[in-house]
Amino acid sequence: MATYNKITPEIAGQLKAVVGEKRFFMGEDIDPNYSHDEMPIYGKYLPEAAVDVETTEEVSGILKICSANKIPVTCRGAGTGLVGGCVPLAGGLVLCTRRMNKILSYDMDNLVVRIQPGVLLKDLAADALTHGLMYPPDPGEKTATVGGNISTNAGGMRAVKYGVTRDYVLALTVVLADGRIIELGKSVCKTSSGYSLLHLMIGSEGTLGIITEMTMKLIPNPICDVSCLVPFRDVESCIHFVPKIKLANLDPQSIEFMDADIVTSSAAFTGNPIFPETVKNEDVGASILVTFVGSDEDELDQKMIRLGKIAEEAGALDVLVVATSSNKKAAWAARSSFLTAIEADTRLIDEMDVVVPVDKIPAFLIYIRRLGEEGGIRIRNFGHAGDGNLHIYCCSNDLEEEEFKRRVKIIMDKAYTKCAELEGQVSGEHSIGHAKMVYLRESVGEDVFRLMGEIKKVFDPDGILNPGKVCDAALRS
Amino acid sequence: MLKILVCVKQIPDIDLVKMDPETGNLVRAGVPTLTNPLDLNALEAAVQVKESYGGEITLITMGPPMAESTLRECLAVGGDEAVLITGRPFGGADTLSTSYSIVKAADMEGRFDLIFCGKESQDGATGQMASQLAERFDASQVSCCLSIDEIGDGKLRATRVLETGREIVEATLPCLLTVEKDNFYGRLPSLKDYLAAKTAPITTYTENNIDGLDLNKIGVPGSGTIVPKIYPPELPEPGRIIRTGSVKSDVAALMDVLTEKGAL
Ligand SMILES: Cc1cc2nc3c(=O)[nH]c(=O)nc-3n(C[C@H](O)[C@H](O)[C@H](O)COP(=O)(O)OP(=O)(O)OC[C@H]3O[C@@H](n4cnc5c(N)ncnc54)[C@H](O)[C@@H]3O)c2cc1C
Ligand SMILES: Cc1cc2nc3c(=O)[nH]c(=O)nc-3n(C[C@H](O)[C@H](O)[C@H](O)COP(=O)(O)OP(=O)(O)OC[C@H]3O[C@@H](n4cnc5c(N)ncnc54)[C@H](O)[C@@H]3O)c2cc1C
Fold it and tell me: Which CATH architecture fits B3-217?
């Protein structure tokens, strides 16, 4: 296990010299939120110091000092992660990118944008739109940083058609643990030029290097879009419909799944019951929200007509159209509120973000619900049905925290085993952090897990970058 | 069978409308339109009545030809017939001439038992139309309606929301109602109805085919109000969040601002 040093007054002085007095924080001046992300249940750990960086050179200067002194460095974007990724388990320094929030330049001929890592997802999306362009990845939390999105390979609702964050990263400037600055990737459409360290860096959760500049791919903004809500009596028939949408060659932008419970919570939270709980006097058990994009209304109408046909064959209660701007706003506000709605009426919460083959979703959901009932834990779920990615929340309002954790651990252990049985993966998009490391290890096996650790050593021999995360099991044992 | 009229208005997306600082006119060109949200609540109330008691819903709007899209949107969620009043001479109308024009066109479609209106429009926002229409239709009026509890024998019973509580009222038909949204959130159209509405026939009235229309009572000549000038409200200085990075320097910065403004 790596041994680390404390930040002495002398080291603090050196760090301060790099970023200046105003962007260096110690003791009481450190934002207390730096001890956790959006999942405080995984434990709170405060750093000894924090810095706000503004340039690649500053990051390099900071890392040189930290590697020379064996000070752990944990990079933090907006702290919206769900696996404790940005939490400084070994103390040391938190390096925050929130002030690296500039959109640097557009190249309209090649449809790329160069940005700093602290640019917020919502700001990039909005700015691209003013250029008639779309940044396709669309994770639910719009106040996350794009640097964080790259580091977790964030997914989101449009992944069915457009893929995930990884697919939009062309090049990165990265500062290595010892302060060296490297460039990975180029602004080109394809490459076959040696090992892709670019893709190794994407999704590496701040354990291999600090990303300080990114070149991202954009696409022309689709001219029009429409969504259809397809309600079913029960979860099974609802999920069985998903592969049919894909097979029908309808090329949807997103296919989202929601069950009755989450619809009720979200209606109570947003105050607008846009997703119906009954249709034609029948209770809705679960619904699919499908979005299409196209170049004109006729094209979308044709897709909806085809969707209508297969929906009827699949036993859907109806097909409802979300076409007006007011309804679109309300529908997406409701969909985007799911997690926040759960958080709003829940005191204790833990989550899993497994991804399973699409046809295995019902089996998994039925299993997890049974586990919840047996274990006395309320289960809430929704997910990106189109890619088999399920967000499952274990919730409680009345249990003591320790008892909650005990019961949830039993459920999680069994659920991840089931996920493996169904040929699934531990995380679809929220990544590993420290919360899911044991499950990653079980899922990939010892050989692969050790290989990951060896790769980490090549990049970061002293283990100062984000200790205790992804494959760094030593810190915890 | 109840004959139900629902008045709907197409409005510009007010979040996107700008004012021409030179002329003081609203710049509406190219701004996306939508159906006045409260009118969709009125329509939902009408649809619920239709579902419980049977009936036929006629939609009516006055506006430029593109207001047709609002009618189609409403046809998809429960409207049966649609009427568009359009034509240059109707332009520049205030509430007085708008209500006159609507009633004259509605008369062409027969007598209505129930008339639903939005509480107010999001753009004009005078909230005068409902009362003017009730007067001109010679109808009783129930405003702030939370639920329509019973209809029969030429009257209805409804619950109103007051600041101090609830009020249950009885009114004779014809009756004009404006509703609260609580029980009347609009519904999503089914695909079948959405597609059917795209090609449904729409009755169009102009200044030339409305019986007994007095051209002096429509458009600008028929308006009782003149708008000499429009200007944007002066906004108070927006709040500012002090976030310098640390609590200590936040407090120092706050003290500076408060001292500078003479608050301390
Ligand atoms: C309500 C809600 C909804 C969400 N919905 C989705 C969703 O739909 N899809 C999805 O994928 N995620 C979702 N998330 C999770 C979260 O938003 C993402 O994981 C996001 O990518 C985290 O970005 P961040 O800036 O907050 O990063 P942080 O939480 O600050 O950090 C996350 C990880 O990235 C590392 N990191 C951050 N910046 C850098 C950098 N510049 N260089 C190197 N490493 C870095 C950190 O060290 C940490 O390991 C949701 C979260 C919430 C709270
Ligand atoms: C300063 C000013 C300038 C204006 N200039 C113009 C102009 O140049 N051209 C123009 O067209 N309008 C203009 N208007 C708007 C017009 O005067 C009013 O919108 C219209 O008379 C209805 O009044 P309202 O919107 O305030 O209705 P409200 O009384 O607030 O609306 C209540 C309900 O009445 C019904 N309703 C209202 N309007 C209609 C309609 N047109 N068709 C069907 N139902 C309706 C709806 O159900 C609505 O919810 C202007 C308004 C103002 C204040």
Answer: 3-Layer(aba) Sandwich (3.40)
pLDDT of B231 strictly over 60: yes
In this complex, the residue of B40, B194, B246 whose CB is nearest that of residue A321 is B194
d(C-alpha B116, C-alpha B102), whole Å: 13
Residue of B136, B174, B260 whose CA lies nearest to B2: B174
Contact residues for A325 (Cβ-Cβ < 8 A; gap 6+): B13, B32, B34
Domain boundary among A339, A369, A390: A339
CA neighbours closer than 13 Å in the CB half-sphere of residue A415: 33
* Nearest one of A388, A368, A364 to A378, comparing CA atoms: A368
- Closest chain A residue to B244, measured at CA: A22
What ligand 1 atom has the least distance to the C-alpha of A118? Answer: 41
Asked, for residue A475, whether it belongs to a domain, the answer is no
* Torsion region of B42: left, alpha or beta (phi above 0 gives left; psi -120 to 50 gives alpha): alpha
Residues A197 and A234 in one domain: no
What's the pLDDT tens digit per position in B232-253? 778 888 888 887 777 888 898 8
Tell me which chain B residues have a C-beta less than 8 angstroms from the C-beta of A28. 247-248
Is B180 a pocket residue for ligand 2 (Cβ < 6 Å)? no
Q: pLDDT by residue (tens digit) across B159-212?
A: 999 999 999 999 999 999 999 999 999 999 999 999 999 999 999 999 999 999
Provide the Cα torsion B26, B27, B29, B35; round to 10°.
Answer: -40
CATH of the domain at A287: 3.30.70.2190
For B7-62, the pLDDT digits (tens) are 999 999 887 887 777 776 777 778 889 999 999 999 999 999 999 999 999 999 99
> Which protein residue's CA is at the shortest distance from atom 21 of ligand 1?
A149
Measured in Å, residue B128 CA sits from the centre of ligand 2 at 9
Same domain as A353, residue A312: no
Residues of chain B with Cβ-Cβ distance to A267 below 8 Å are: none
Per-residue pLDDT band at A477 (split at 50, 70, 90): very low
**Domain CATH for A422:** 3.30.70.2740
Q: How many structural domains comprise chain A?
A: 4
For A120, the 3-state DSSP assignment is strand
User: What is the predicted ipTM?
Assistant: 0.87
> Which residue in the set B188, B190, B245 is minimally distant from A23, CB to CB?
B245
Question: In the listed set A191, A220, A249, which residue is the last one of a domain according to the structure?
Answer: A220
Contacts of A320 in chain B (CB under 8 A): 188-191
CA of B93 to the centre of ligand 2 (A): 8
**From the list A272, A276, A325, which residue is nearest B34 (CB)?**
A325
A358 in the same domain as A319: no
Mutate to test the interface with A, among B191, B199, B242 (most CBs of A within 10 A): B191
| In chain B, where the domains are located | 3-217, 233-264
